[in-house]
Design goal:
Helix 9 (234-246) packs parallel to helix 10 (263-270). The chain starts with a helix and ends with a helix. The relative contact order is 0.09. The chain has helices at 4-13, 17-27, 31-39, 50-71, 129-138, 143-154, 160-168, 171-178, 234-246, 263-270, 280-287, 293-307, 312-324, 326-330, 332-340, 342-345, 353-359, 366-379, 385-410, 432-442, 444-447, and strands spanning 87-97, 100-109, 185-200, 203-215, 221-229, 251-257, 275-278, 381-382. The protein is α/β, with parallel strands linked by helices. Helices cover 51% and strands 16% of the residues. The strands form 2 sheets. Strands 3, 4, 5, 6, 7 and 8 form a 6-stranded mixed sheet that branches. Strands 1-2 form a two-stranded antiparallel sheet. The protein folds into 2 domains: 27-75 and 85-168, no CATH class; 183-368. One of its GO terms (biological process) is DNA transposition. Residues 75-119 are annotated as: Disordered.
Length: 451
C-alpha cells in the first residue's frame, strides 16, 4: 500500500494533466468527491461548484502569500508586532471565471499600500473569460446570445455593456491588421465578396464585404484586407487600390476577380501594368444561369474548348463555333455573357498551363467565403460596417486557429491524418515554383528585382 509520502512524490513527478489525473485516481484521494459529483450532490461549475471552490482556494492562498511578502513576516509571527504595518482583515470581491463566479476575500493591510498582483484592483474577470467571449463572438453569436450562454452554462452573469466592451477591445487589433504594411510586389491578387446585412439609419441594407487575398513571392497567401461597400464603382475601387498602395504595394502582376464594376479603371490608375483576369468559373456559372437544367451538361462541355484553347484567337474561333451551333442558337445568352467579359477573360490564355491553374479562378478563397457565410448567417445583421470587418477578421483567425489545433493534435502520426490544412492565411499555392518561373519569363523586369 502506498504511503502519503509516496503519493506526494508521485504527484510531484507528474508533467501533464493526464498524468496528474492518473496520480489522483491511484491515490484514491478524490474517490468520495467524484462519487458526490456523480450523484449530483456536488456541482462541478457554477455557483457553489467544485471548480469555483478550488479557484477560490488557490487565489486566496496566493493573495495571502503576496501580502506576507509585502509585510515581510508570516501571519501570527511575533516578529511582526513591532512593525508599523500589519494585516487588517479582508474585503469581499467577486470575480467571473470560465468555471463560474468566484467570491474572494482579498486581504488588506493597515497602511493601504498592498497592491495585489494575482488579482489586481478593479479586475473582475480572470481565467480566460474574455477569450471565451471573443471566441463566441467570432462564432457569430450576438452579445445577448453570449450573455445568455454564459448564464445558462457556467452561471456567470456578465452585463451586455461589459461584453460589448470586451469585444470592442479588439478593435485596435483589427485596425492594426487592416493598416499593416504589405509587400512591394504581389504577383497575384484575388478579389471576392460575400453579401452581409448592415443597419443603415432605419433600414437594413445588403452590402458587399470584399476580401482581397494576395500571393507573395514565396507563393504564400495572405488576406490583405476587408472592405465593405453597398455599391461598387470606380470611386470605391480607387479607394481600395489607394489603400493597398499606401500600405506599400508598388506593383501587381495579375488581379483575378469576378467582373467588378469600375475595377479595371481603378487598377489601371494605380498599377497601370497589371493584368485583370475575370474568374473563369464565375463566368461559366453566369453563362449557364439561363440555360435549362437538361442542357447544362451539354453546354458546359461545349464551352470547355473555349477556356482551354491555346490562345485568344483559338478561343474566339471556338466561341464563334458554339454560337453557330444548334445549342448556341438555342442559348444566345451564353455568347453574350462571354462577349461582355471577353477583354478580361482572355489574359490567362497567354500563359502556359502551370500559370493558368493559378490565375483562372478565385476559387482559392471560395472555401474561405463558405466558412464566413456560415458565421454571418448565424449573426443575421450588423450595426455598422466596422462590426462586419471585426467579425470577419475574428472568424478568419478562429477558423485558422481551429485547423492549426487539429494539425498539432495529429502531428507525428503516420497514418489516418485527417486534419485540414490552412484555409487561406499562410497556405502555399500548389506548384508555385513552376508558376513563378513562368511569371519571371513573361515579366522579367518586374519580377527579377524581388527574387
Amino acid at each position: 500500500m502506498a504511503t502519503g509520502k509516496d503519493e506526494d512524490l508521485q504527484l510531484d513527478q507528474v508533467v501533464s494533466t493526464r498524468e496528474m489525473a492518473e496520480a489522483l485516481r491511484a491515490s484514491g484521494a478524490v474517490d468520495d468527491l467524484l462519487a458526490q459529483i456523480d450523484t449530483g450532490e456536488v456541482a462541478l461549475t457554477g455557483e457553489g461548484g467544485l471548480l469555483p471552490g478550488l479557484i477560490k482556494l488557490a487565489l486566496e492562498r496566493g493573495l495571502a502569500a503576496e501580502l506576507t511578502d509585502h509585510l515581510g513576516y508570516e501571519k501570527g509571527e511575533p516578529a511582526g508586532r513591532g512593525l508599523p504595518n500589519a494585516r487588517n482583515g479582508s474585503s469581499a470581491k467577486t470575480v467571473q471565471t470560465e468555471a463560474g463566479p468566484v467570491p474572494l476575500d482579498v486581504p488588506r493591510d493597515r497602511e493601504g499600500s498592498f497592491t495585489p498582483r494575482l488579482v489586481p484592483k478593479g479586475q473582475r474577470r480572470i481565467g480566460g473569460l474574455d477569450d471565451m467571449i471573443v471566441s463566441l463572438y467570432a462564432g457569430g453569436m450576438t452579445l445577448r446570445d453570449i450573455q445568455f450562454h454564459l448564464q445558462s452554462t457556467i452561471g456567470t452573469e456578465v452585463s451586455h455593456e461589459t461584453i460589448s466592451k470586451i469585444v470592442d477591445e479588439i478593435s485596435e487589433a483589427v485596425l492594426s491588421w487592416q493598416h499593416r504594411p504589405l509587400d512591394a510586389l504581389y504577383p497575384v491578387i484575388y478579389l471576392d465578396a460575400i453579401v452581409v446585412k448592415v443597419k443603415d439609419g432605419g433600414h437594413t441594407r445588403n452590402k458587399a464585404a470584399h476580401i482581397a487575398v494576395g500571393v507573395d513571392m514565396a507563393g504564400i497567401k495572405h488576406v490583405l484586407g476587408i472592405w465593405v461597400q453597398q455599391n461598387e464603382g470606380a470611386s470605391f475601387w480607387a479607394s481600395v487600390c489607394a489603400d493597398l498602395a499606401n500600405r506599400g504595394v508598388r506593383d501587381v502582376l495579375i488581379v483575378c476577380c469576378d467582373g467588378l464594376t469600375g475595377f479595371p479603371e481603378a487598377i489601371a490608375a494605380t498599377w497601370s501594368q497589371a493584368a485583370i483576369q475575370t474568374c473563369v468559373v464565375h463566368l461559366i456559372r453566369n453563362a449557364l444561369r439561363f440555360v435549362s437544367y437538361s442542357d447544362r451538361k451539354t453546354v458546359a462541355a461545349a464551352l470547355k474548348p473555349i477556356y482551354t484553347a491555346p490562345n485568344a484567337e483559338a478561343a474566339r474561333a471556338e466561341l464563334d463555333a458554339f454560337t453557330a451551333s444548334e445549342m448556341g442558337k438555342k442559348n444566345p445568352t451564353v455568347t453574350r455573357v462571354f462577349d461582355r467579359a471577353w477583354e478580361q477573360f482572355t489574359p490567362f490564355l497567354a500563359f502556359p498551363p502551370e500559370l493558368r491553374r493559378v490565375i483562372y479562378t478565385t476559387n482559392s478563397i471560395e472555401s474561405l467565403n463558405y466558412q464566413l457565410r456560415k458565421v454571418t448567417k448565424t449573426r443575421g445583421q450588423f450595426p455598422n460596417d466596422a462590426a462586419v470587418v471585426k467579425l470577419l477578421w475574428l472568424a478568419i483567425c478562429n477558423i485558422e486557429d481551429k485547423r492549426a489545433a487539429e494539425r498539432a493534435k495529429e502531428r507525428g502520426q503516420k497514418r489516418c491524418r485527417t486534419a485540414p490544412g490552412r484555409l487561406v492565411e499562410g497556405q502555399v499555392v500548389t506548384n508555385w515554383k513552376k508558376a513563378l518561373e513562368q511569371l519571371a519569363l513573361v515579366y522579367p523586369d518586374r519580377v527579377e528585382p524581388y527574387l
